[in-house]
Automatic annotation (TrEMBL):
This is FAD-dependent oxidoreductase. Residues 578-605 form a coiled coil. SUPFAM superfamilies: 4Fe-4S ferredoxins, alpha-helical ferredoxin, Nucleotide-binding domain. PANTHER family: GLUTAMATE SYNTHASE [NADPH] SMALL CHAIN, GLUTAMATE SYNTHASE [NADPH] SMALL CHAIN-RELATED. Gene3D superfamilies: 3.30.70.20, Alpha-helical ferredoxin, FAD/NAD(P)-binding domain. It holds the Pfam family Fer4.
Amino acid sequence: MILEPVVTEEMAEVALCMNIRKKVTAKDLAPLCGKSVEQTEKLLMDLAYAGVCFVNEIDGVDTFWYDTWVPGIMEMMVNNKENVKKYPQIAEAFEAYGRVRGPKTTGSFPVGVGLMRVIPIEQAIMGETRRASYEEVSKYLNDNDIFSVADCSCRTARAVMGEGCGHLSEDMCIQMGHAAEYYIRTGRGREITREEAFEIIKKAEENGLMHQIPNLDGSGKTHAICNCCGCSCLSLRTAEMFINADMVRSNYVSKVDREKCVACGECVQHCPVNALQLGQKLCSKEPVITTIKREDTPRDTEWGEDRWNVDYRTNRKDVVDTGTSPCKTACPAHIAVQGYIKLASQGRYTEALELIKHENPFPAVCGRICPRNCESACTRGNLDEPIAIDEIKKFIAEQDLKQEHRYIPKIKHDYGKKIAVIGAGPSGLSCAYYLAVEGYKVTVFEKQPVLGGMLTLGIPAFRLEKNIIHAEIDILKELGVEFKTQVEVGKDISIAQLRKQGYEAFYVAIGAQKGRKLGIEGEDCDGVMTGVDFLQNVSLGKQTKLSGNVIIIGGGNVAIDVARTAIRTGAKTAEMFCLEKREEMPALQEEIEEAEAEEIKINNSWGPKRILTENGHVVGVEFKKCSSVFDENHRFNPVYDETDTIIVKADSVLVSVGQAMDWGNLLSDSKAEWNPNKTIKADPFTLQTNEPDIFAGGDAFTGPRFAIDAIASGKEAAISIHRYVQPGQSLTIGRDRREYHQFDKEAIIFDGYDNIPRQKADHIKETTLKDNFKDPRATFSEEQMKKETERCLGCGATVVDEFLCVGCGQCTTKCKFDAISLVRKYDGEGVAYEDVKPVVVKTVLKRKARIAVKKVKKAFIHKK
């Protein structure tokens, strides 16, 4: 199947006269195949260009030989870009070969003797006194003088099959010596210097890839270094799918120092074979998974398909069954909370900021407006009070804002592809940030004259000052993101026109920028406005002077912002009326208290019946008593007592009972569909709509939520868009679904912990709060921040599956706490192809004996 499209009958006749790894010239081979030397030379060169055999010039004469199928011939065939594109069955055969042959090797190769071998990232074993030179990447580069670089054959094959994982293949795998000469000569790779090879190794490590070598040339010898990902590599599949890690592993395994580990999750995210998961560190009354032990392995157990992990490319697991730290679990963006708290405690503020920005580009914003799900879930709250996580994050972000040279992430690639983001709110900005870091040319289109969406237009400055938003957006500008304001897509320009301008994908994140109406009598009279419109007008500097008595209808955070803004724009009094009881109000307790500190009265359990008017202007509101808001299934289904009513005089009414989307003509002439509530339909994981090149997220997809939810969906959209615009990439394969769950906090044993009180940020005196739009909340001092970080219980830790770990060392390069290291556990060395058979036979016999002994032991135990 793999040879048929590119090997003719004549070429096959010549190939059949060759022997594996035996070098011959055309002159040697011509008599054996009954052809002239010239004809034989031509057919051998055709075979070489197809990828069936090597060619090198030795002593001035072209010399040919063929290698093993894998690693060897199949990779070389896939690396012929023209052929693999024309004949995709070449890629399919490459993938199928290992899937069929892989199980036959299970348990048969001792550590170090497999056809491919993991070489640890050198930095990870520098402190290991027993390391051998054959375990160092630098040895192989320094031992050779000629180098080439080519596309990764595994990722190329996966992409041809439409199963790419998002890790791209270009210029990733290095050939040396005879392989480099062959690759350069046949156009499979380009010649590079040793220095360039080292740079490629460095870039691969920075991008989360690990190293493997073909392992059939003998100990300390190889002709290639592959830079691999676990989600596409057909060699690592033997560990992940067949659980046969011995076939590829290095002599090392990962070890976690639980005292140092803070469960930031960086190692878990970057482990290519999912050998690391997040767990817990605190003592518990219930059993807790602290190590992953496998009772059965291929070394001593008969191994069949029932023991494989067939879906390893889509079922990645981030957390052990007993759970991990609640803060990371509860955060919609799953930020490494414990990680940045620990870094802040050590004064490593830039590193802490970098860790936060892996998941959230706007820590200064979120440090002021986040709903603090992490704090609500914080384990410390079961002991006394939760850690002031948001205040710590705010302090970290403030340090960066004060710097002359702020932290700007390194751009990973330069793809040159154009992406359009529609909407400059938190979700659109988040998507733009991560796409820019990845290497795309991003343009953000915003119909308003200012950037930030509801961050700027819907949140008053006394909660989020505009200069903070601008400072965060400045980083996107530094990354090359282009902004076009006062451009409404669907009105001023269409998506179809943008496609013609070269935009290859679109992220729709227009938010919920329109206020909902009540649908009651009198609502359209003068003096009645939605809270959203009111806040936008204030933010844009439009005339919004109020006077007299102002009624605010609603009980959420936006309603409180509206009430507090009303006081600041001239209202004599501001009264809130909401359906919910005090304890049911959706507004955060902190915001309720701030409103009451400004003498805003909150009237609970009242719903509007009608708005009273005189001469077309509001004069009051009639309310009816709300006896319950939710039914027995906690669905919104208010019940009223129509006989219990009150009339409240009003000079203005601001309605803040929810938000809605205003789609305009944005998606006319597209296949996009909407839900009954006018949110857009999209895949909940990939965020792709029915129009393949259009993705959607944030409030436009979920309905009104918090900024951190929108930020999280923006990052997921960026991942999807990256995969979509790159040929052959799947939107789901090899993608982390980030499914976290917390441990049982009720089972934690709290004996012996400190009683340090929670730190409180200073506030401006309450008497001055109503007089201006300045944020009254101060930032922690450094002393306060340090004291607060001491309160963190550090309740999570990484757990290692030592058998599955292949010892690549990628985890050690991502850990900022020196909490994970490679430890030498094995002493396996490579064996030349010619010497492999007796080693394998010996291993197979030993394995059969171990299986037999294990069966006898189990039978004996069962009888007892």
